[in-house]
Design brief:
Length: about 140
């Protein structure tokens, strides 16, 4: 009995991997479910229920998919940067070189800055100041 459970767990793990792999490329839960089933050699399932099963599997794997997409985004950004660097240096067209160099510089400029965090006392003082300004404004309206 334990061997059957182990085989089922292994197949489910493989199913999950195939589903995630296909979903990340095609962004379609139904197709990813069908692909995963077929990759496991399972052809005797009802395709009319694939949409529901695909959605269910997506919900189950949502966190894993999100994590992998985040990782892929970082890898894609690194690849993009490498391509831009190569174009900026090696492109035959000066126009392409300039455009690639500008794009590299623009990405540097758009980097978000980290703001100084405030402690509770600073926030309280700021709230008090805003309240005083509001009171002065409303007193002046009368």
């Amino acid at each position: 009995m334990g061997e059957v459970v182990e085989i089922q767990k292994k197949k489910q793990g493989e199913m999950d991997e195939y589903f995630i792999e296909h979903y990340m490329v095609h962004n379609n839960q139904t197709d990813a479910y069908i692909y995963a089933k077929r990759m496991l050699g399972i052809d005797d399932f009802k395709e009319e229920y694939a949409k529901q099963y695909g959605y269910s599997l997506f919900k189950k794997l949502r966190a894993e998919i999100s994590e992998r997409l985040d990782e892929a985004e970082v890898e894609d950004a690194a690849l993009s940067r490498n391509v831009l660097r190569k174009l900026a240096v090696e492109a035959e067209s000066e126009s392409v070189q300039v455009t690639a160099a500008k794009e590299l510089a623009r990405k540097r400029i758009e980097r978000p800055s980290v703001k100084k965090s405030k402690d509770v006392a600073e926030l309280d003082a700021e709230i008090k100041s805003i309240n005083e300004q509001l009171k002065e404004y409303s007193d002046g309206k009368d």
